[in-house]
Amino acid sequence: MAWNPARIAEAPGVQLFDPRWWRDQKRLVGEAEGRGAAYFLDGLDGTPWVLRHNRRGGVLAHLNHDRFIWTGASRARALAELRLLARMHADGLPVPVPIAALAARRGPVYRSDVVTERIAGARPLADVLMEKALPATAWQALGGAVARFHRAGIRHADLNARNVLVDSDLNFHLIDFDKAKRVAPGAWREPNLARLRRSLDKFDALTPTFNFAEADWAALRGGYAEVFASGH
């Protein structure tokens, strides 16, 4: 287990990672589903929190949906994610504030949970685009935000339109850094961007009201390039 001492003074109990406990305390205020189930909480410090239970993706998920091979605490996914979140937050990148993480070992396997602060007023980009189009300046800002992560060497493992949040002021944030890594600059940046593009295209193909056009992607690429050119 690991936690943010600025938000939790003492080691939390394992109930912090149990949605049933939060429900019994009447502090579970909502939930969402995805590869990692997300539970929205009234946090112990009075701020909104999110509890995410890590799940496997792909074909293995049918046989083993949430167990991972134990190879040591330093490599446990939830603990690694919390460390990376703490570093990114300290560097001023737009990510959730880390709260706590648990890697619950049982023999050769473990289950994994992460708690972060919920970003106020923010919604998944995919949901927003189902309701309205965003101006070119917003797409430029999104490109710039992604570029800041890439300049810092952050390779998001699942950069998609649901892991990008946009708030009411059109500020962008990235979430779900499970399996993300800090790596050296390199050719990985373009495939990472391409993953986001495929996600947007998939939503566009499946949802008639989805507001995404080629000009939007061009604006995103422009904002991305501008950050690299400016050095800021």
Main sheet summary: 7 strands, antiparallel
Radius of gyration over alpha carbons?
18 Å
Fraction in beta strands: 15-25%
Q: Please tell me the overall pLDDT.
A: 92
- The fold-level CATH name of the largest domain is Phosphorylase Kinase, domain 1
Give a description of the structure.
Keywords: ATP-binding, Cell inner membrane, Cell membrane, Kinase, Lipopolysaccharide biosynthesis, Membrane, Nucleotide-binding, Transferase. One of its GO terms (molecular function) is kinase activity. It comes from Salinisphaera aquimarina. It is a peripheral membrane protein. By secondary structure, the chain is α+β, with helices and mostly antiparallel strands. The protein folds into two domains: 116 residues, Phosphorylase Kinase, domain 1 (2-Layer Sandwich); 108 residues, Transferase(Phosphotransferase) domain 1 (Transferase(Phosphotransferase), domain 1, Orthogonal Bundle). It is built from six helices and twelve strands. Strands 1, 2, 3, 4, 5, 6 and 7 form a seven-stranded antiparallel beta sheet that branches. Strands 8-10-11 form a three-stranded antiparallel beta sheet. A two-stranded antiparallel sheet has the order 9-12. α4 packs across α6. The two termini are 35 Å apart.
